[in-house]
Each structure stands twice: as C-alpha cells, then as structure tokens.
C-alpha cells in the first residue's frame, strides 16, 4: 500500500493520530520537499516520528518514481506531504503510476492552506478560483493572476493567492556549466506580492483599464497559518505592501464582497485602527449590511 | 483558552496529535453536532479520547454561549468540530463572543470536505464558488444553486456541492404543539441531489434557457470521504441519479473544464467503462489535450 499522508501546516504534532500510526509501521517513509515547508525541519520530524525520512524532491518524484514505489505492492510505503496530499499541489501523477503498477493507495487527509485560510474569518464558500503569484524577473513579469482576481472580484468572490516558493534553483551560470549547485530557497512575502499587485494596478491605470483592485482594496496577509506564531494582518493593499509578517510561508487574500460577519472577524486582525476605519469607509462599495 | 479543534473526516483517529493532547487536558469538551457527522458516533469518540463530551447543538451554541464560554478565561475549554472549525461552517459568532469576553482562542486545523475533495483527482485550484443543495419540499423548490453552478461552468470551474443535512427537525404538528420531538436525521444523497438537478435542467430547457449543464454532464459523487469505506463515483448526471453510494455524508462535484490529468484521475472512479467512454466522447467540449 502507498500511503499519501498530509502533515498539516504547523509542526510535527499536526499529523493525525492515524497518520502517525501508519508512518511508524511503513517500510520506507518519503518526505515531499518541493511544494511547501513546515515551520520545523526534517530533523524535528524524524525525531518526533522516530523514523528516518527520505527527502523526495521534484526530480526524484518525477524521474525515480519506480524506486519510490518499489515493494509498495507487498509492503507499506508512506509519502508525506505538508498540508493535504491533494491540496495546493496534487500528486495525481504518482497516484496514476501506482495504480498502473498494481499498487493500492490510500490518502490520509489533513488541513491545507486552501481550507485553513478560513481562520481569518472569511467564508470559504465565498472564494473563487485560487491563484499563484510568481516572482517577477527583469524579463518575465506575468500578470495573469491579476486577471483571475478580477474575474473573482466581478462575481463578488474572495481570491486566495498562493505565493511563490523557489527551492533548488540554479543560477544561470551553474545551470550552463551543469553544476548541481543550488541557490538558497526563496519564499515570496505578503509585502512582495502586494508590491507586484500595486505595480500591475499602476500599469492598468495607465492603460485606461477599468480597475478590479486599487491601492485601497482590503486584503488579508497570512503567515505560518496553523503554527503557534501564525500572523494575520488585514489592511489595504498599500498597507500590506509595507507590512512585515516574518518568516515563511506567506499567503494573501484579495477580498471580494464582504458580509457583515466577515467584516467583524477581519477587524480582529486589522493592521491599525485606521485600517479598520478604512474597512468600513473607503471600501464601502463591497460592504452591505 | 478556547480551542477550536477540527476532527477531520473519518473516525476518532483523524484528530491531530496536537488536538488530542489538548482534548485530554481541557476542563470541558464540547462536540459540535449540527453541521456534520463522523462515521463514528459520540460514544466512540468519548472512548477513544478518554473524555466525556458535551453535545452542542445549534440552539445551545446560539443561546447558551455564555455557559459554553464559562471559565475559558482561566482554564481551557475545547470545542470540537467535524472537519475543520472554519471549513463548511464558520464559527465566527463564537469567536467574536469569546474575544468580546476577553477570552483567547486558538484553532487546531484539520481536513474538511472543502479540501479533501481533491482526492477525486480534480485540482482544487479549479473550483469556483461552493454551493449548497437543499432538500426540496412540496412548496419550496429553490434553484439558486443551479445559477451558481452556471456561473462557475461559464468560467470553466468545477463546483463542489455540499448536500443538505437535516438534524433535530420537528414535524409541523410537533412544532405547533410545542413538543420537542424530533424527526430522524436526514442526509441528502448524491442520487437525490442529481435528481433535483435533472428536474431543474428539464425546467430550464422548457423555459428555453441556454443550459449550463445537461443529463450528460460529468459529475463526481463522493461519500464518506476520508473514511475506510469512502466511495467516489464519476459518471454523467443521469448515471449519478441512479447510483447508490451508501451511508452519509455525501457530496458531489459538477465538473467544469477538465484537464487531461484530471480526466485520467476521474477514470479511476468511473461508474462503468461506458461512463468512462462518455467522459472522453460525449463531453468532449470540456476536454482539451
């Protein structure tokens, strides 16, 4: 049996009791290490689970899947994923490989950012399509996520924005020389994402577009959701652009139509009492009682 | 401290290790009992947790919140919720009451149907607004969920449909006589939801509307997601209307635009090889390679 086990979002103890029992009994345990991170590292997990973990990066899952699946038809192998195994990233490819190899699989679910964002007080019912905001480079500055946010806003829906993670990146020089030397991991912050959104707002305004969002649009920044030191900050897009929410992982929400109970909940995390006033006054078009 | 603890979706062991530790140490433990159910009952939870659980129905949470919060400023009280505390139903009202009473709160997240549906192979990214399908009566037959499904389909998005739960309902006679006698709980099945959707399709066709879905639209029925005996069935809306997925809870998905990897995953749960053929042939407008 191949077990896909969600680890949840915080630390080693966010695994479910069922998941932990399975980890302890499997012959091999892999830790998916390319789509997300916990606030604790591999060592802390190994110590808590009492098991050696094999790090599985993207190359390994894609190119050495046979090794990963080896023996899973007669013994148990676990594949651990931060969040839920079918949350922000699906592992459909690995599921299909297992099924084709005659290996049964089972999923042990857990919280993922896609449902845990509900803790900020916005109703999950009222979210539209989830978007990813990627790091811009000098030559690559995609704006497609803005257009998806616009579609959601037009329907009154909130938009969860997952922020870019760069792990095992090679510099152009190392890539060209074939050197497997990797840059330090980078995790986009709420501030960086907000700045990119603000730049798009400026561009679109210059182009004369009807704006989906502007500097005063109420957004929610979230950091380390589920961890003891999680941070939630509600404010205007401009305010979030200068907010520091600390270490990774960050994500953010561009709000749509806000219901009164949602406004009351967002006030608990307002950046300043001014931001709070702004919530009721400057964005009143999205607030009905 | 008031702890909101998600129980996940399957049985007693789907609580997280962290959640279980907190349950064992709290002075009182409430079990929210009106928005969802586990496949195991209160007794099984009490035995596994080694704690007495106080059932909290909607009336109690709304009318006796002071009693629920009593002492939570100086000791620990837990409020257990099937799925995630901020999943399908938010408990914002209770959060705000706690904050207003000077009581700190903390959320222990878990899987909810809103993220666990990813197990069927559809990407959570590609879901639009979640809808609720309610039991029709002779005199009340709302169709608003159809219009939301249409909006999502127009954008190519999948729609998760949460199906109605009726607990602690009173018959009209008992209600009028003021007798607190309740009907047996009712949980809408995938078959019932599909039949209601088919009726709407017929109505709208007669009205000459451009149809958002029809009898051949590919849908996914899910039952007891996360439990050992979970069932997933993919087929046309017509096929799901005559499918029996067993005991509660059920939910269903009306698919939008399907990506090739999503089609491959859905084939694993196709009702029949015919349904599978249909997936590639009769709904080809939604499938691009």
TrEMBL record, chains A, B:
Give one GO molecular function term: diphthine methyl ester synthase activity
UniProt binding sites for S-adenosyl-L-methionine? 9, 84, 87, 112-113, 163, 225, 250
EC id = 2.1.1.314
Q: In which pathway does it act?
A: Protein modification; peptidyl-diphthamide biosynthesis
> Which reactions fall under this protein's catalytic activity?
2-[(3S)-amino-3-carboxypropyl]-L-histidyl-[translation elongation factor 2] + 4 S-adenosyl-L-methionine = diphthine methyl ester-[translation elongation factor 2] + 4 S-adenosyl-L-homocysteine + 3 H(+)
Q: Which Gene3D superfamilies match?
A: Cobalt-precorrin-4 Transmethylase, Domain 1, Methyltransferase, Cobalt-precorrin-4 Transmethylase, Domain 2
Give GO BP annotations, semicolon-separated: methylation
Q: Which residues form the Tetrapyrrole methylase domain?
A: 1-240
Arranged from A to Z, the UniProt key words for this protein are: Methyltransferase, S-adenosyl-L-methionine, Transferase
**Cross-referenced CDD domains:** DHP5_DphB
Transmembrane intervals? none
Q: What does this protein do?
A: S-adenosyl-L-methionine-dependent methyltransferase that catalyzes four methylations of the modified target histidine residue in translation elongation factor 2 (EF-2), to form an intermediate called diphthine methyl ester. The four successive methylation reactions represent the second step of diphthamide biosynthesis.
Similarity field: Belongs to the diphthine synthase family.
- By what name is this protein known? diphthine methyl ester synthase
* UniProt organism field: Umbra pygmaea (Eastern mudminnow)
């Amino acid at each position: 049996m191949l077990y896909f086990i969600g680890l949840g979002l915080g630390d080693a103890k966010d695994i479910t009791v069922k998941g932990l029992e399975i980890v302890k009994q499997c012959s091999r345990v892999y830790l998916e290490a390319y789509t997300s991170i916990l606030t604790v590292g591999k060592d802390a997990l190994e110590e808590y689970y009492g098991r050696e973990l094999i790090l599985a990066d993207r190359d390994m899952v894609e190119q050495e899947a046979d090794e990963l699946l080896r023996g899973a038809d007669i013994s148990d192998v676990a594949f651990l994923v931060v969040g839920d195994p079918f949350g922000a990233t699906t592992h459909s490819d690995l599921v299909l490989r297992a099924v084709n190899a005659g290996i049964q699989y089972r999923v042990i679910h857990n919280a993922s950012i896609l449902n845990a964002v509900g803790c900020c007080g916005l109703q999950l019912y009222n979210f539209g399509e989830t978007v990813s905001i990627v790091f811009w480079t000098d030559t690559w500055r995609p704006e497609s996520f803005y257009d998806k946010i616009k579609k959601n806003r037009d329907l009154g829906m909130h938009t969860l924005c997952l922020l870019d993670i760069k792990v095992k990146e090679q510099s152009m020089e190392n890539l060209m020389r074939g050197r497997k030397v990797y840059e330090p991991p980078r995790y986009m912050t709420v501030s960086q994402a907000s700045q990119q959104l603000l730049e798009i707002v400026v561009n679109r305004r210059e182009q004369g577009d009807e704006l989906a969002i502007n500097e005063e649009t109420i957004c929610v920044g979230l950091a380390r959701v589920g961890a003891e030191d999680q941070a939630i900050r509600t404010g205007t897009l401009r305010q979030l652009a200068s907010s520091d929410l600390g270490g990774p992982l960050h994500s953010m929400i561009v709000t749509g139509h806000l219901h009164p109970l949602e406004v009351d909940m967002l006030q608990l995390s307002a950046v300043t009492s001014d931001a709070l006033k702004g919530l009721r006054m400057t964005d009143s078009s999205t607030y009905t009682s």
